[in-house]
Design the sequence.
């Protein structure tokens, strides 16, 4: 019986492999079509710098893909479809910087589908043009550091943690002790340092130069999210519309009507990968690391 199950598993894997191989052949073949193309990348989930997790945006993978698109002369522009609450500060900044560099050579248009907040708005602001769905939420410009406090619960059950540290602030993030006022002030200063960089970068990305414009940006950069209409009023976006409008805007920027829009599917671990604890499909088909190319629109 075990031998039979093993044999059946091999057959299933073989059929699956053949099917995926044929699909890859067909899809990758479409990548070779002639004519001007624009790449479409969907960025959905929390921004991190780890590979292959569902519901996340892996900054390392995104930057690798953007690098390839930047160098590939077949692709005249990039549309980023964004639906993200933000995430880690450094990965968000890395994507932002990559978009800045690309748009010097190729236009980048962002379409905020549902949510473009915090770190997601950070990198979106670097694009040449931002369009938001009428029902989307935009903004949440700000920085937060969370320090859990469990020391009172530990006191009740008689557990004590003793920290042997090299400096007074070394355990400022520890949840096992009360956060002292001077340590809290230290963390507040750290938050504000990142916050000022955040706002400064957005002002540069959105070409806000006058003192009045920068003052107004600071006034709304208090962590609030805004409706698309309010975001447009404050200059956080350029237009309210839909994905078709993003495509039309790209055609307008390029000055061409005959454009093929090609979606790049970013690689995510398959159920088989998660079951086996491997990146099997990436090893079998190396190009899947960068996504599956296909004519999408």
Sequence:
């Amino acid at each position: 019986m075990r031998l039979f199950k093993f044999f059946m598993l091999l057959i299933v894997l073989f059929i699956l492999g053949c099917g995926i191989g044929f699909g890859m052949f067909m899809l990758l073949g479409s990548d070779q079509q002639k004519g001007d193309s624009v790449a479409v990348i969907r960025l959905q989930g929390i921004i991190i710098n780890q590979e292959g997790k569902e519901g996340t945006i892996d900054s390392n993978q995104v930057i690798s893909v953007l690098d390839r698109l930047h160098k590939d002369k077949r692709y005249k522009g990039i549309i980023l479809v964004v639906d993200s609450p933000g995430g880690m500060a450094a990965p968000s900044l890395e994507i932002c910087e990559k978009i800045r560099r690309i748009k010097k050579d190729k236009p980048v248009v962002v379409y905020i589908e549902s949510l473009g907040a915090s770190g997601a708005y950070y990198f979106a602001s670097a694009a040449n043009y931002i369009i938001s769905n009428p029902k989307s939420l935009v903004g949440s410009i700000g920085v937060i550091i969370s320090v859990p406090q469990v020391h009172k619960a530990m006191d009740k059950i008689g557990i004590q943690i003793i920290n042997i540290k090299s400096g007074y602030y070394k355990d400022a993030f520890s949840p096992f002790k009360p956060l002292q006022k001077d340590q809290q002030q230290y963390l507040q200063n750290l938050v504000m340092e990142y916050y000022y960089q955040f706002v400064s970068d957005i002002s540069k990305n959105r070409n806000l130069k006058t003192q009045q414009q920068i003052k107004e940006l600071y006034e709304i950069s208090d962590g609030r999210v805004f409706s698309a209409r309010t975001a447009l009023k404050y200059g956080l976006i350029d237009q309210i519309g839909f994905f078709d409008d993003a495509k039309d805007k790209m055609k307008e920027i390029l000055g061409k009507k005959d454009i093929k829009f090609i979606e790049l599917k970013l690689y995510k671990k398959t159920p088989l990968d998660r079951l086996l604890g491997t990146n099997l499909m990436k090893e079998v088909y190396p190009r899947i690391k960068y996504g599956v190319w296909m004519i999408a629109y």
Observations:
- The CA atoms of residues 59 and 196 lie 22 Å apart.
- The longest helix spans residues 2-30.
- The radius of gyration is 23 Å.
